[in-house]
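Board notes (copied after class):
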Amino acid sequence: MAAERILIEDGPQNLKLVEVAGKAGVVNATVLHHFGSIGGLQTALMTRMIEQLVTRVLAISAATTDLGELAGAGTLALFDAFETRGVARLAAWLEMTGEARRLTVVREAVREVVSARDETANGVTPEMLEDFILICISVALGVGLFGPTLGALLDKSESRAREIALPLLLGLAQNALSSGAE
């Protein structure tokens, strides 16, 4: 998608209808008609990216009944999305420009993932799963936005924040699973 390429290459501040039309090889009016505004385009882009992530997480969920394995693979998928797809940049841009209300797709995505699991599988309640997803999204957002820059500033690899964050989150998940099983 042309808008996604612009987002990744140039950042959300350069996501303009005329630029998207040019990259897509269509006239500006076509993009305007389809999305209505730059806000509509941003919402559609965020929705598409989140839907792709949910599809991936649900596929992982369908492939395993082991919540530890799901937490690990799902967290990796989340970090991959926030680091490589421009999701973190767009989410931060929407928040900083007062347009965070368009992130409601995230709420629906979390509810879809939570409802795909058993009510209290392994003693993990939906509330516990929502809390785990909340902290994973928060950390993945930070790592996606600042991890490479801060790593480089501290003379570490650009992936160091991710390398530190993932085991911490997975340890949190394992502790919750262990507590739930008792």
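Comment from the instructor: Residues 39-181 form one domain. The CA atoms of residues 24 and 167 lie 40 Å apart.
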